Amino acid sequence: MEEKKNAGPPDILAKVISVIFHPLFMPLYGMIIIFTAPTLFWYIPFKVKKILLFVVATNNVLIPVSLMPFFRYRNIISSWAIETRKERRIPLLAVSFFYSITSFILFRLQIPLFIKSFIFATAVLAITVSVVNFWWKISLHSVGAGALAGLVIVLSLNMMVPLTWFLIPVLLISGLILSSRLRLNTHNPPEVYLGFITGIIGMYLLMLLFQ
To answer: Pick from 198, 203, 76: which is nearest to 137 by CA?
Structure first.
């Protein structure tokens, strides 16, 4: 009861940030960054962009979200926040499966290898955090934030284009995300900071494998 009384604008803002930048949305945000950054990928036909965004939005966002009521009904999770490490196991495995399906679909399409490598990296990161979750509660929000930062860095290096005005907002938003998770007391500092490091380094190294 005390926590509810003390809840104020900072806590509400932290919750809003956590929802807007939920880990499930990060691959979709990453695709938007790739398509809007001033690189050669900006010239990909709009119809192709729509198809790719539709595939990612369906497999990586809509289907996982639609499974939440089933998980709740079957008592696999006790709340929509899925805050305990034990309750995360099945949802994370499900997300990893659909991320892998997305990667498989995109690898069969005639699209730039860079986009394929990004989706592949998100799938590997999802599988990695699913495995880590069996022993340790890493911050998924932080991993997603770090992955976006890693994407912008690799995109800038690969295209040899300074993407300062993409990297700065991503880093600022990452700071808000990490602060929000700490503010809501859903994670401790090591879980948050190591999550971000895992995301940025993991995305960077995995995408470099294809370059």
So the answer is: 198
Question: Which residue, 124, 142, 119, 133, is CA-closest to 197?
Answer: 142
Domain positions in the chain: 2-208
Cα dihedral sign, 53-194-21-88 = positive
| Structure confidence by residue, pLDDT tens digits, 117-146 | 999 999 999 999 999 988 888 999 999 999
Distances (CA, A) of 92 to 99, 117, 171: 10, 21, 25
Q: What is the mean pLDDT of residues 97-114?
A: 93
What would the pLDDT profile of 13-53 be if each residue is shown by its tens digit? 989 999 999 999 999 999 999 999 999 999 999 999 999 99
Length of the chain as a residue count: 211
Cβ-Cβ contacts under 8 Å for 98 (sequence gap 6 or more): 59, 60, 63, 64
For residue 60, the tally of other CB atoms under 10 A from its CB is 26
